[in-house]
Amino acid sequence: MSPRQASLPLLSLENVAVIRGNRLVLRDLTVTARAGDVIWIRGANGCGKSTLLRLVAGLLTVTSGSVRAEGRIALADENLALDANLTVEAALKFWADMDGAFTTEQSTALANMDLQALASIPVRFLSTGQRKRASIARVLASKADIWLLDEPYNGLDSANCARLDQAITDHAASSGIVLVAAHQPPSINVAQSLVLDSKGSAA
Amino acid sequence: MRVFVALVAREVRLAWTGGGLWLPVVFYLAVATLFPFVTGPDKALLARTGGGILWIAALLATLLPIERLILPDRQSGVLDQLALRGWSDELVATAKIMGQIVAFALPLLLATVVGSALIGLPEAQLGTLLLGLAMALPALSGLSVMIAALTAGLSGASALGGLLLVPITIPLLIFGAGSLSEDPGNALQLLAATSLAITALSPFAAGAALRAGRV
Q1: Which of A12, A28, A174, B101 has the lowest tally of Cβ within 10 angstroms?
Q2: Is B215–A20 a contact, with Cβ atoms under 8 angstroms apart?
Q3: What contacts A171, CB < 8 A, 6 or more positions away?
Q4: 3-state secondary structure of A103
Q5: A149-183 per-position pLDDT tens digit
Q6: CA distances from A188 to A122, A172, B39 (A)
Q7: How confident is the model at residue A1, as a pLDDT?
């Protein structure tokens, strides 16, 4: 039985503060996300959006406060994490295998981000937007409950922005949680819009 | 277990495609080729010193793959993605060390057969040399991953890597070269013990370095 069936995903941050490189990046942050929530994290450059996502992903530790995440997590940030010499399909398959995804789920993820035509092209030849789509496809195929997307709309054309909107909406509809960090206002229905100010607390 | 094998296989594939496999072998054989030019065709001298030179070449070849072991994976986010999936840094380091054993240690061991022929090592010594290197190369693989994790992202990582490697490998070199003497028994036992200790500790040191490097 997968964790998804066993229990609904939950994400809760309480009074979180993070110090990174001698700088207080986040402070007094309390966020709760339940199954089906899409949280849109906004704020100026350097206000701590990516730090918040890395924190939820467990890649950073809190200086004070607590982070609780129930459910598997997938992250798409500015790092592609796909081997440059492999084809798009093979590079995505590496992670899909690691996540225990089936071939059908991989091809669905490829199709949802319109990557079938690029499947046999080595990752190093992809353009900025194509790379972004590949990293989103990695999240789609991961079967994770909680998606963390860092500036996922960067470099995407309008057709692919719509595809991403659809994927986020579908994931939320199937009891997933999505955290989107983006500087522009949300284009889809979101449960919460979290705006971080320059001091890293919720404005 | 299956995903662990997949990660080791990825290391081997990266070494194969990224030149990390051939570079140490070519370096190692180049030393074996050049050494007789320095000493001249004195068979007795070559037989006496050749094994030691191959030991030094093997130790220095350890440094060659260091830059591509950890840094590319950190920069491309692969290490983050593994940590995200609950992989401990020690386990990631272990997979990388296993990958090095396959993609660095085994080719070097095979190259030793060629190298010793180039130097003209007596057959009796070849067996001891192969045995000694087979014991030491897992430790060298562990050290290369550990040093790669410690120096990833630092400027002058290669030079620093050399400084870190040389003191730690001195015991391996002493016992390894010592085993080439008439009675190799004691030296081989000490070599095995030293190598085992380094191999066993290196995943933890490398794992700690990976964790410290994640910001």
Answers
A1: A174
A2: yes
A3: A147, A178
A4: helix
A5: 999 999 999 999 999 999 999 999 999 999 999 88
A6: 32, 11, 76
A7: 39
A143: left (phi over 0), alpha (psi -120 to 50) or beta: left
CA angle B138, B144, B148 (to 5 degrees): 150
- In the structure, what pLDDT confidence band is assigned to residue A4 with cuts at 50, 70 and 90? very low
Structure tokens belonging to residue A142: 């991961």
Asked if this assembly's ipTM is beyond 0.85, the reply is: yes
Helix (H, G, I), strand (E, B) or coil at A121: coil
Q: Is B48 helix (H, G, I), strand (E, B) or coil?
A: helix
Average pLDDT, chain B: 93
For chain A, what are the domain ranges? 36-59+73-196
Select from A21, A54, A97 the Cβ nearest to the Cβ of B3. A97
The sign of the CA dihedral A152, A158, A161, A165 is: positive
What string of DSSP letters covers B135-187? HHHHHHHHHHHHHHHHHTT-TTHHHHHHHHHHHHHHHHHHHHHHTTSS--HHH
The mean per-residue pLDDT over the stretch B116-137 comes to 93
Average pLDDT over residues B12-33: 91
Q: Which of chain A's residues have a Cβ under 8 Å away from the Cβ of B76?
A: 79-84
Q: What tens digit of pLDDT does each residue of B84-123 get?
A: 999 999 999 999 999 999 999 999 999 999 999 999 998 8
How many residues can be counted in chain A?
A: 203
Q: Which of A74, A80, A99 sits opposite B76 (nearest CB)?
A: A80
Alpha-carbon span B46 to B36, nearest angstrom:
7
Model's pTM, two decimal places?
0.91
User: Where are the strands (E) in chain B, listed by range?
Assistant: none
Total domains in the fold of chain B: 1
Hey, what are B167's tokens?
Answer: 């003191």
Choose from A18, A83, A92 for mutation: most chain B CBs within 10 A: A83
Closest CA of chain B from A85, distance in Å: 8
Q: Is residue A2 predicted with pLDDT exceeding 60?
A: no
Q: Is the pLDDT of residue B152 over 90?
A: yes
Domain span including residue B115: 2-212
> What is the length of chain B?
215
CATH number of A36-59+73-196: 3.40.50.300
Write out chain A residues lying below 8 Å of B87, CB-based: none
Does the beta-carbon distance from B83 to A79 stay under 8 Å?
Answer: no
Bridge pairing between strands A73-76 and A192-196:
unpaired
